[in-house]
Amino acid sequence: LLYKPVDRVTRSTLVLHDLLKHTPVSHPDHSLLQDALRISQNFLSSINEEITPRRQSMTVKKGEVSLPAF
């Protein structure tokens, strides 16, 4: 269930990217779209930075046995 909101932000980021690609620089919303895209990309980057160390610590290489740390 926690992936749903992040997935929604990911899809919105892709939509913003496509919309920005088709919006002329002279359009009044162009700078607002750039800001929204930057904010959503920064959000996704921060989520990824928080998840990556946890994912790596939970990964067990083939043939290794992982024992819980106490």
TrEMBL record:
Question: Where is the DH domain positioned along the sequence?
Answer: 1-50
Pfam families recorded: RhoGEF (PF00621)
Q: Name one GO molecular function term.
A: GTPase activator activity
Which organism's genome codes for this protein? Calonectris borealis
Protein name, UniProt field: BCR protein
The superkingdom of the source organism is: Eukaryota
GO cellular component terms attached to this protein's record: membrane
Q: Which InterPro entries match?
A: Abr/Bcr (IPR037769), DBL_dom_sf (IPR035899), DH_dom (IPR000219)
